[in-house]
Amino acid sequence: MPWLVRQVVRLVVVLFCVTLLTYMIVNILPGDVAIVILGNLATPQDIAGLRADLGLDRPMLVRYFDWLGSALSGDLGRSYRNGEPVVQAILDRLPVSLQLMVMAQVIALGIAIPVALLSVRKPGGVFDRISASAAFGFLAMPNFMLGIVLIYLFSVTFDLLPATGFTPMSEGLWDNLESMILPSLTLGLIEWTVLMRVLRSDLLTTLKEDFILLARAKGLPQWRVLLQHALRPSSFTLITILGLNIGGLIGGAVIVEQIFALPGVGRLLLGGIFNRDLILVQGTVAFIAVGFVVINFLVDMLYAVLDPRVRHVRFRS
Amino acid sequence: MALFSRRFGLAAALAVGLAAPAFAQAPAAAPVRGGALTIGVESDFEGFDPIRAGVYSNSTVTAASLFYETLMRLDDKGNLIPALALSMTPNEDGSVWTAKIRPNVKWHDGTPFTAQAVADHFNRLLDPANRFAGRAYLAIEKVEAPDDLTAVFKMRGPNAALPRTLAQPTVTTLIISVKAAQEKGADYNRNPVGTGPFVFKEWRAADRLVAERNPNYWDKDKPYLDRVTVRPLPDSDARYASLVKGDVQVIWEDRAENIVKAKKDKNLRVLTWVGSGALVIPLNTQREPLNDKRVRQAVSMALNRKANAAVLTQGLRPVHDDPYGPNSGIECKDTGALKYDPEAARKLIADYGKPVKLTMTVTATPRGREGAQVFQADMKKAGIDVEIKPVDQTQLVKEALSRDFQVTGWRIIDLADVDPQMFANFHSKSPINFSGYNNAEVDRLLLVGRTSLDENKRKAAYCDLIKILNDDAVWLWSGSNIDFAITRANVHGIPGLRGGAVQVEGAWLTK
Fold it and tell me: Which of A58, A82, B439, B465 has the smallest number of CB atoms closer than 10 Å to its CB?
């Protein structure tokens, strides 16, 4: 089977499992959207009536396959809570979450790569040790705490950036960036640590290779050896981690969006869970799952771009 | 909402036992026109069609009262003042109330506001086909509009509480344009039309709701502000930081640390509102051993309510011996409350003669558990064993409604009149009488409270009632409903936070 077809089949199977599992988990949750809508003191008749209107009285599997059928044609249903189409709700909030994750990733890489390169210049040296300690410090810090610390530092104390809220790009690029700096920093400052450690260790291995010795023997300066010869072959694990870390980033985004009051997909999901808005949760999780799998698929493709040998092997098999 | 929910965690250094009115803002000079105000609330809005939204959180009432209005209003002393209705008068026995509608009021879409619109709003909520749960609390049979300026409320029986009930802004009493709701269908929930001081402009989900000054508002001087933005800021520390930074000028707050901090900050002002209702601990009078009055009294006397409230809420939440609250106008000289006396409780248990074991059902939240743990510790001193059963909130409601519990946690919400809740909770025929309490004299007093048009008679009835309830130890009052808002020092004119909502119709800014 061609590689691409295999990937697509894998994607379909993963999505089926993820959505079915989500459906079951959300169904096990105690609570009922009908009670959320009608209030604590609604009569049992009203609750039964609303459940019937929403189609919640049918067996779970029937509902799941019904949902799956529409989902395949791009319709994720309407929120039980407020009737908003789920696809619309996700698309409205997607730009915020995407921007948050891209900016966080850029910040993380922007710190991780230079720090890793500087560290391997003298492994075990002062800079290496300081950067390792800093990395563990940030890694140990929960993002909700880091977020609040950054708010108190940059908003309250130095009055540089807004504490909460989101300004869309249509209202000015700088205003938009201003509102996203602290949330992205909160995610990025934790994310860079893993990337840096992985890259550092791969760089150290690469630096022992013969072609590095050759480069040095040619008299190339240290920075050229590192940037032009060592960095690219050392980036494979880094890129794998980048893909896999999207999951962690999405989890982090849920919390960061809540702290900074950003209208993103994470907050949509959280609201859906609190309201037992099953169909919203289902649609959002399916969407995130597709995103996760597609990004990792793209990461696989990136290997091929970085290393012709991979391209050769994978696309022929 | 059940007791020991998130609001149980509020706290701060307010002295226990506030005098009425608990709400006070420094008096300022004459109001100034202009300016924009941003309010930070806790959660996003359910929407603004009561049928679709079902319930309004206090965040939603804060937003909805920008563009919706009630028929009557209450000042901070609890006096009724006219709003969309100029007056409300009862017939002889209070079974029919006639509202004179304010003339020349217009909806934001330009159509005239009439008595028919009032009738349409309430009849829509009362229609069983719409399944509006709040209708259980409405004692209205139907509303008619004989002419454009007269709305006639036909009650299910004599009812003295109607004008006050209609004066508190809630999902029921804030009047929407049914005509616009029918025209817009499902979109109305996100595009409300009202008569209020501000016109709805925009709602970006989970981000902000914007409303602008209504230039055609019937109260010519108001509102003073040009624009109001309401932003859901779910994280309380970030919400507080946004206020300190000045991104928002008012926040609703329930976190003790922030309230205590704000009181020390000269740039901020803390608004405090002790509402009616209370956090309560209902005892099931139909289950052994709580069907024995001695055991219930022992539980009541073993519970150190004041000390517990001080521990759980850093002394912020006042504890009263009734669920009426300082702003209800009901002040009882003698509430018949049983004093904290673990020794006497122990004797009552000894008198009962059998070992007493109780199960307390609470929400599976840190606050639910904390509340149950202090209860458990107090009971131990009187020789009563308590097992804690943490459950999901909906499960707790289910068990309470089906009377399938011994001891639980609950909340009587803050309403302008005590009748709807007291009647629902303690009348022997009420389906919401969780405790299964059955007392003919209590039923009679509840009816006096509901039907008497003589305010003094009503107050006396509620005072007699509380004596019986306290002596019988049916529900224990573990703390008042209390709400806080924090404002920048230049914000003025925000009235008492009824139901936890921040209302800014009369708010104004100085530099």
Answer: A58
